[in-house]
Amino acid sequence: MQSHLADIVQPLLTWYQANKRMLPWRENKNPYSVWLSEIMLQQTRIEAVKQYYKNFLRQLPTIEDLAQVEEEKLLKLWEGLGYYNRARNLKKAAQIMVEKYHGKMPTKYEEIVKLPGIGEYTAGAISSICFQEKVLALDANGLRVISRILASKKDILLPTTKKEITKKLQNILPPEAGDFNEALMELGETVCLPNGTPLCEKCPLIPYCQAKQQNVTREIPVREKKKKRKQEERTIFLLQKEDKIAICKRKKTGLLAGMYEFPNVEGRLPKKQIKEILKGWNLEVVTIQKIGQAVHIFSHIEWNMVAYQIQVRKSNTIFQWVTKEQLEKEYALPSAFAKWKDGKTKKKE
Ligand code: SF4
Description:
There is one protein chain. The chain has 15 helices and 7 strands. It is of the alpha+beta class and 349 residues long. It is globular, with a radius of gyration of 24 Å. Strands 1, 2, 3, 4, 5, 6 and 7 form a 7-stranded mixed sheet that branches. The chain has 2 domains: 5-213, Hypothetical protein, domain 2 (Endonuclease III, domain 1, Orthogonal Bundle), CATH 1.10.340.30; 230-338, Alpha-Beta Complex (Nucleoside Triphosphate Pyrophosphohydrolase), CATH 3.90.79.10. The N and C termini lie far apart (49 Å). Iron/sulfur cluster is lined by residues 145, 148-149, 191-192, 198, 200, 203, 205-206, 209, 211-212, 217.
């Protein structure tokens, strides 16, 4: 039996009231907290975000604090979350809020969406959850749920599919848009799970779900295969002089822009070539030992890394030489490099 999409609204809202998880950012509807959590949750799992979120707010409790924070401290607070431009954009947006909006989040969707790092989805979430604006916030979870409700075979990675579903949802959006948005996401995260494993028996929308009725929940949503990631070989140098280790800063643009790293070069180099590079860096080798290999996956590129621990006779001025304690406390090291921090042999990940 065909149902109207509007039929899902009430059962979804009722289910949400009874089943929503208590998450730290749901304790209040403070726009700063909601904004921060939404940005952290992009590309990162809820469980991983919780600790970062609490720590970030402990260190930078207000938008003014965020606007003034030094980049090094900001990146340290973000260390391990990846996609570091998200953190830089938070600061830029906070500065605009201080300059233009008395240190507060603007209250209208149209103003929020113009801030750096805030796209349509995040602006929709903030304005509907914090300011009760009747705006949609549709993420991948919501898209999956609605694709299944409609048994849509369209590729959800295509902007046209998202646009079409957005339009349909805008027509049925209730006045409690914030709750509706959160309910749809919550259902996608906890019940209408990805990878062909929805828990339909727990779903309040089962009577309205065409994918369930047609027995095609495993095939929906349709996602055309992404292009293969570029593979890149890298040799990592863990250069040690007594209790110090060499680090350097990456370029201001591109992958991991402005982050710290262990010296490294493209390619998988034989020891002879490694020694030549070290000579070029004015370093005299005492010992050199291969300690392992690992893979690190970014969104468009995959690094296949091999690391060498190298004791040198004298440090040079090309790199910064820091103790392990300094590295822990003061420098933000992206996960691709953090795995080598202890210098132990690692198995291929
Ligand atoms: S019935 Fe199953 S497939 Fe349909 S929305 Fe609910 S959980 Fe998803």
